[in-house]
């Protein structure tokens, strides 16, 4: 209504009626009116069955969501927010489960599930880490307090025995997951905040990405550094990950590149993968080790071949952000028309939200369509 209120207000009532074919097939409006307005436009092919779930932050958190993590079985999602809480969600329905996890006194920067899915950990700007019972949402033990700066990243060790945290105080700490006690001294070496941490698949090493533009490798048992810092990024390193076989390290940076490194030697593999986006939210390796995936802030994810570094155009066959062509039409990958955006409205809309559409074009059937001066025939009058 914000952008189309004027044309709607001066158009015939069939403007409203003609939207009926686009309603979700199982929605109340569709089931109520499709048998009564039989001479309207009809849609062929793919149909949306039900209304999509609203964004999580609109129905649960009262402020921005900073971080998310899936449970090991993929059934649940935990989110951390600027509103100082974490929430658990049903991954299929997007319904909030239970009450918010309340306890932090500042924004929640990072969340993670334990390998067995029984616990959740959260790191916060209040400089603490908290452990939660994933089933009840209740706090487990006391907050883990030793960092002197915001906790930007938290993770469990592969065996679930330890918690690892990266902080604005430039250090990494290892904690006993059962007692909450610190294990050994802090891991020191970075000169700026530690934004991301990850464990190797065999549990022997920890990697960290920092605002000092480097990636570091640590011995998980001794806490000592392994080799020299991995240098090459020209800006903050915001995300790090291991390939699933543990042979490669992947890093994403504000310099708009993704880099791949040999995990054993620390040497760079190939040229940096250039990403035309303002910032890197997270990166990951595909389970088969063939692809690198990066998630960009307010953008659709991108995927590359991990060996050739060639981009793969479409990650998802279902959803991808698309922009209208010069003629105003938004098209699917093979040129099918999805919808048209008026030129005077295209700059006013929010592309990431407005143009996230199913990548399936549909055709419209105009046979028996009542329009113009005969538009009133669109309505089937009940027989007395």
Question: Top keywords for this entry?
Answer:
384 residues, four-stranded antiparallel β-sheet, 6 helices, 2 domains, mainly beta, Methylamine Dehydrogenase, Chain H
Structural description of this entry:
The structure is a single chain. With 384 residues, this protein is mainly beta. It has two domains: 5-51 and 321-378, no CATH class; 56-316, YVTN repeat-like/Quinoprotein amine dehydrogenase (Methylamine Dehydrogenase, Chain H). Helices cover 7% and strands 37% of the residues. It contains six helices and 30 strands. It has a four-stranded antiparallel β-sheet. The radius of gyration is 25 Å and the shape is elongated. The protein starts with a helix and ends in a 19-residue tail after the last strand. Mean pLDDT is 78; it is low at 292-301, 313-321 and 347-360.
Characterize this entry briefly:
This protein is mainly beta. It is 7% helix and 37% strand.
Topology:
Elements: H1 5-9, H2 14-17, H3 28-33, E1 42-44, H4 56-59, E2 65-70, E3 76-81, E4 85-90, E5 96-102, E6 108-113, E7 119-124, E8 128-133, E9 144-145, E10 151-156, E11 162-167, E12 171-176, E13 187-188, E14 194-199, E15 205-210, E16 214-219, E17 230-231, E18 237-242, E19 248-253, E20 257-262, E21 273-274, E22 280-285, E23 291-296, E24 302-305, E25 311-312, E26 319-321, E27 329-331, E28 337-340, H5 343-346, H6 351-354, E29 356-358, E30 363-365
Antiparallel strand pairs: 1-30, 2-3, 3-4, 4-5, 6-7, 7-8, 8-9, 10-11, 11-12, 12-13, 14-15, 15-16, 16-17, 18-19, 19-20, 20-21, 22-23, 23-24, 24-25, 26-29, 27-28
């Amino acid at each position: 209504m914000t952008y189309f209120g004027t044309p709607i207000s001066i158009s015939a009532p069939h403007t409203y009626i003609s939207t009926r074919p686009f309603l979700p097939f199982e929605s109340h409006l569709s089931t109520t009116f499709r048998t009564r307005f039989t001479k309207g436009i009809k849609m062929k092919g793919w149909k949306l069955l039900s209304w999509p779930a609203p964004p999580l932050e609109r129905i649960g958190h009262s402020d921005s969501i900073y971080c998310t993590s899936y449970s090991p079985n993929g059934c649940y999602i935990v989110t951390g927010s600027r509103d100082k809480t974490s929430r658990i969600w049903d991954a299929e329905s997007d319904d909030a489960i239970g009450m918010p996890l309340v306890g932090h006194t500042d924004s929640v920067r990072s969340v993670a599930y334990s390998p067995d899915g029984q616990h959740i950990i959260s790191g916060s700007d209040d400089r603490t880490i908290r452990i939660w019972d994933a089933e009840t949402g209740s706090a487990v033990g006391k907050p883990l307090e030793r960092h002197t700066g915001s906790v930007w990243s938290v993770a469990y060790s592969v065996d679930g025995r330890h918690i690892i945290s990266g902080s604005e105080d430039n250090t990494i700490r290892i904690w006993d997951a059962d007692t909450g006690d610190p294990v050994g001294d802090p891991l020191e070496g970075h000169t700026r905040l530690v934004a991301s941490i990850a464990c190797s698949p065999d549990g022997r090493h920890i990697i960290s990405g920092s605002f000092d533009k480097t990636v570091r490798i640590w011995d998980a048992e001794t806490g000592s550094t392994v080799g020299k810092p991995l240098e090459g990024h020209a800006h903050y390193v915001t995300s790090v990950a291991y390939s699933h076989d543990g042979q490669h390290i992947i890093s994403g940076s504000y310099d708009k590149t993704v880099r791949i490194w040999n995990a054993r030697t620390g040497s760079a593999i190939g040229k940096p993968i250039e990403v035309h986006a303002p910032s890197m939210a997270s990166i990951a390796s595909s389970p088969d080790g063939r692809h690198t995936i990066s998630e960009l802030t307010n953008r659709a994810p991108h995927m590359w071949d991990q060996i050739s570094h060639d981009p793969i155009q479409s990650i998802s066959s279902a959803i991808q952000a698309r922009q209208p062509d010069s003629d105003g039409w938004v098209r699917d990958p093979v040129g099918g028309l999805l919808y048209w955006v008026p030129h005077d409205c295209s700059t006013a809309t929010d592309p990431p939200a407005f143009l996230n559409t199913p990548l399936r074009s549909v055709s419209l059937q105009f046979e028996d369509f009542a329009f113009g001066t005969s538009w009133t025939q669109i309505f089937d009058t009940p027989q007395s």
